[in-house]
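Let's practice the habit of predicting before peeking. Look at the sequence and jot down your guess about where helices and strands might fall. Then scroll down.
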Amino acid sequence: MPVGHVSRVRALYRRILLLHRVLPPDLKALGDQYVKDEFRRHKTVGSDEAERFLQEWEAYAAVLWQQANENRHNSTEKSCFGISLPEERLNDFRDEQIGQLQELMQEATKPNRQFSITESRKPKF
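Done guessing? Here is the structure:
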């Protein structure tokens, strides 16, 4: 892989993990794990699939950045993250991707998520 491609992938990966810091702790944990798994899974794909993969994750990062800024400016309202996925976009997915998306949706919408995250808090003096 060209050096430019590798640095682009690493920069995007770091950017997404940084953006996840604005998410609620349980969604951050879920999102971080999903990103790590997906980037690992796509290490050996061909150049066309790699380019599409990067474009989709860059679009995700842009939407998350925009939503984080909007949530910061509307601090009185409950934070909202995510977008609707139009049905026509689903037609472009492989069966494996549909299954992953279904699992992700189920995990993200569980009333009692499997992630039990407690933020370490330092006592304030």
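How did you do? The chain has five helices and no strands.
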